[in-house]
Structures are given as structure tokens and as C-alpha cells.
Design goal:
Helix 1 (10-30) runs parallel beside helix 4 (106-124), helix 4 (106-124) packs antiparallel against helix 5 and helix 8 (248-270) packs antiparallel against helix 9 (275-299). The model has no long low-confidence stretch (mean pLDDT 87). The protein is mainly alpha-helical and 321 residues long. 69% of the residues lie in helices and 0% in strands. It has helices at 10-30, 50-86, 90-95, 106-124, 135-162, 176-194, 198-233, 248-270, 275-299, 301-307.
Length: 321
């Protein structure tokens, strides 16, 4: 039986990409190698201890499987989305529903993650591939995501004004657009930091800064309002929604890392010392992340202990990955 497409299904590809990048980032910083991103040829197995061989081999296999899952799921979901978009009135009716239209940002977030997967984990297995050969194509892909992100943001915002909803029903899933802003900014700052072509790097950095400023504004405004609504309601949302509290964690990390990258790029261009502000931004983002993570675990402790493993799957659980 053919399953009906829904934008939120892209969370599966997004989660697979996240697992792949976690393994890649560990290898990137733990294994000595030359400038740029690590390649599989940089792993000198004969010089590793037995425990290092086992650990790194497991990570390489995890990264291979999750990279393949991300790319395969992305292709499958893109086909489903194409059919969904060309079906008459299906997209418009979805966007006009203020309770569910926020999930339209999941494909944008997932495709931004896939771009990072291609640059890192996918290229890891191709030692002869120069990342610079991908920069023009990456910039074009990034701009498609950039335009789509703002188009959808304004489209969804318009629906909230035309079809007002009960504010008490809002929950942390409402931050999915901010999550997409964080991942698009990460893709843009990634291009800015990797590209040797100054025109590509400058264009990506300027457009990324615009995404970052807009994303931070949305994050502060929405998070403040959601905390106010949560306090006013004086009770937690339904159990399927509870894992959405964890969504604040990746958003904070993404915005902090993107600012860190862009400050490094501007430091090279304008020759000023950005080390202090860069250190502050990245430290602040991770302090907020750790603090929110501890608070969320405490807040949801009963749910995690009693109901998480017994409850039916909910799309919000992907946010925990």
C-alpha cells in the first residue's frame, strides 16, 4: 500500500543525516590530518591501538549506513513531495491550516542537512574528490533553499494572520521554522568557510548573516511566547508533543556554530581579531544548550521514565535524535 506523503516525513532523513555528521565530526577532530575535511585515506589503521581501530571502524560503518539512509530517504521523499506539490490544491490547503503548516519547514531543514552530509560524510569515502569542485553547485542549491525558506516563512505567517488560531494550542513544534533557519545558515556558513573562491565565500557569508539575524529574532520571539503560554496553561502538552521541548537544543547549537563560522570568515576579510566574540558566542550557545537540556530532562523525567518506551511513535521524537 502506498503511504501518503507528508512534509514531516523528511525528519527520518534529517535524523539519519544528523547521526552521520556526529560520527564524521568525531573523526574530524579526533584523527590527525591535513587541512580541510578528513578523508578515509587519513585513517592510518596500522598506527592505531586495537581500541582505536575498533572505535573508528564502528564510526566509519555507522557513518556509511546513516549517510546511505539520508541520501536514499531524501530521494524517496523528494519524489513523494513532487507528486504532492503538483496535486491540485493540496499544497494550498496544507499551508492554510495554521495547526500543521509549520511542518512544511522540515524538508528545508532536511535538505540543508543533506548538503552538509554530501560535503562531509559522503566526500569522506571519496579521497579524490575536491570539495572545491562542488562549491558552485552547492551555492546554487543553498540559494534555492534560502529563497524557499523565506517564501514559506512569509506564506505561513500570512496564514496565521488570515486564519487565526487559539494561541493556547501552540507548542514547541512551532519552532520548526527556526530549526530550518539554523540549518540553512549552517549550510551557508559552511560554504563561506570552505570556498576558496572569494566571490562564492562573500556571497554565502552575507546571505547567511541575513538568515542568522532573522532566525535569532524568530527564536527569541517564539521561545519567549511559548514559555509564556506554557506557564499560563499550567500543564504540560499531550505526550506525543513532549519531545518537542528538545528542539531548542539543536537550534541553539546551530545558531551558535553559524555565528562562530561567520565571525571567522569576517575576521579574515576585515583583518580584525574576532577571537573574543567568537569564543563568547560559541560558549554561550553551548551553555544555553546544556542548561536547557538538563531542564528539559528534569521537566519530562516522568514521561521519559514511564511513557517514552511504551508510547506509540510520534514524529516529535525525531527531534531527540
Amino acid at each position: 500500500m502506498k503511504l501518503k506523503f507528508a512534509p514531516i516525513k523528511f525528519q527520518a532523513a534529517l535524523a539519519a543525516g544528523g547521526v552521520s555528521l556526529m560520527a564524521f565530526n568525531y573523526l574530524q577532530f579526533a584523527i590527525p590530518h591535513g587541512e580541510g575535511l578528513i578523508k578515509i585515506s587519513d585513517l592510518l589503521w596500522s598506527q592505531m591501538s586495537p581500541s582505536q581501530v575498533i572505535l573508528n571502524a564502528i564510526l566509519v560503518l555507522i557513518m556509511l549506513g546513516s549517510t546511505a539512509a539520508n541520501l536514499i530517504l531524501t530521494v524517496v521523499f523528494l519524489r513523494g513531495m513532487a507528486s504532492w506539490l503538483i496535486t491540485k490544491n493540496q499544497f494550498n490547503s496544507f499551508i492554510e491550516n495554521p495547526l500543521t503548516n509549520i511542518t512544511i519547514f522540515v524538508p528545508i531543514a532536511s535538505l540543508s542537512m543533506t548538503a552538509n552530509v554530501v560535503w562531509g560524510p559522503f566526500a569522506f569515502y571519496l579521497p579524490g574528490l575536491s570539495i572545491q569542485t562542488l562549491m558552485w553547485g552547492s551555492l546554487l542549491f543553498y540559494m534555492i533553499l534560502w529563497v524557499s525558506l523565506f517564501f514559506l516563512e512569509f506564506k505561513v505567517a500570512k496564514s496565521w494572520f488570515i486564519n487565526p488560531m487559539d494561541a493556547s494550542k501552540l507548542n514547541f513544534v512551532w519552532l520548526l521554522d527556526v530549526f530550518a533557519f539554523g540549518l540553512v545558515s549552517l549550510a551557508g556558513t559552511g560554504i563561506a568557510s570552505m570556498a576558496e573562491n572569494s566571490a562564492i565565500a562573500s556571497f554565502a557569508s552575507v546571505t547567511s548573516l541575513f538568515v542568522l539575524v532573522f532566525g535569532v529574532f524568530l527564536f527569541v520571539a517564539k521561545l519567549s511566547f511559548l514559555i509564556y503560554i506554557q506557564i499560563k496553561n499550567a500543564q504540560l502538552p499531550d505526550k506525543p508533543i513532549l519531545p518537542a521541548f528538545f528542539l531548542v537544543i539543536p537550534i541553539t547549537c546551530l545558531l551558535g556554530l553559524s555565528f562562530y563560522r561567520i565571525m571567522g570568515h569576517f575576521q579574515n576579510i576585515f583583518t580584525f581579531d574576532a577571537s573574543v566574540i567568537s569564543f563568547f558566542l560559541i560558549t554561550a550557545s553551548y551553555v544555553i544548550t546544556i542548561g536547557w537540556g538538563i531542564f528539559t530532562v528534569y521537566l519530562l523525567f516522568d514521561y521519559l521514565r514511564r511513557d517514552f518506551f511504551k508510547s506509540q511513535f510520534a514524529p516529535t521524537q525525531w527531534g531527540m535524535v
